[in-house]
Amino acid sequence: MNCMFNKLGPWLDLAGRILIAWLFVSSGFDKIGGYAGTQAYMESMYVPGSLLPLAILAELGGGLLIVFGLFTRYAAIVLAGFSVLAGILFHGSPDQHIMFMKNITLAGGFLILAANGAGRISLDQRRARS
Questions:
Q1: At what angle do helices 2-33 and 35-44 cross, to 10 degrees?
Q2: How far apart are CA 123 and CA 130, in angstroms?
Q3: Please, which residues have CB within 8 angstroms of residue 34's CB and are 6 or more apart in sequence?
């Protein structure tokens, strides 16, 4: 059984990175497309709309770094913090409990990624070899 996971492991790492980053990459693009609406929503939650470019950079930029496995540990730490902060700021009410737990769970996944790195199929691995 271990032999199977040794062979599949790099591909599972890649698939996991793509899946965990998908939410952030798509959300980053959505924020660009609905910039004014997102800014208004942030301000309705008492978060300065001027922080929206940073949110887009974290989501889109960090998500793409995770997908490609480039500076993965750093991007994972940033996205773990972003997930916790977004959970607290936007999903802190009792009716948002599931969304809050989703954010905390994502942060846990990113911390595992930060601890273990991107895996063999990544630009981090290619950089380490050269």
A1: 90
A2: 11
A3: none
Instruction: Say whether 58 sits in a helix, a strand or coil.
Output: helix
The region, left, alpha or beta by phi > 0 then psi within -120 to 50, assigned to residue 119 is left
Distance (Å, whole) CA 105 – CA 107: 5
- Cα(113)–Cα(26) distance, rounded to whole angstroms? 20
Single-letter amino acid, residue 33: G
- Mean pLDDT, rounded, for 16-44: 97
What is the structure's pLDDT at 1?
58
Q: How far from the centroid of its chain's Cα atoms is residue 30's Cα?
A: 15
Q: What is the pLDDT of residues 32-71, one digit of tens each?
A: 999 999 999 999 999 999 999 999 999 999 999 999 999 9
